[in-house]
Amino acid sequence: MATKEKIILWLPRLLCIGAILFVSMFALDAFEPGIPFGQQLLNFLMHLIPTCVLLLLLWISWKKPFWGGILFAIIGIVTSPLVYNLNYNRTHSVMTSLSIILMITVPFIVIGILFMMSHKQEKKIDFLVNLQHFKRIRHFYRKWTIRIYRQFRTINIRYNHFLKRRTIAFIAS
To answer: How many other C-beta atoms are found inside a 10 Å radius of the C-beta of residue 56?
Structure first.
């Protein structure tokens, strides 16, 4: 596998792991002083639900890059207006809301596109491998067909030669 194919294969996976780690950092705000540890742990686990969903999507994408790419793109596209509205209502700043969208949701759209490109690359490599396999089978078939034909021709020539000798012997007797 060439370097370009390796990059196309591993880039979406590594970016996705990085984006999931980035999103999971937001779960750390559940730990605040003055709240009982059990409540903090429960809040932390609730904040990790999006991380678990993204890990599930990563697992799907690892097995089926095309469907995972579509799911990541859909997640990024669907959550963009939600994140924008949430942040705009808090800050009343368009630029702040757009920058947060660029940090949180756009990477998942890019990851989805990269997973779809990875799928296309895998299909291209599979096609080339199958084509090479087909060429090997075709070469093997042709080689053995030619060998069988030559053997048959040799047998046919010998049989014809035998028939001629027998006919000549029959006529002579």
So the answer is: 12
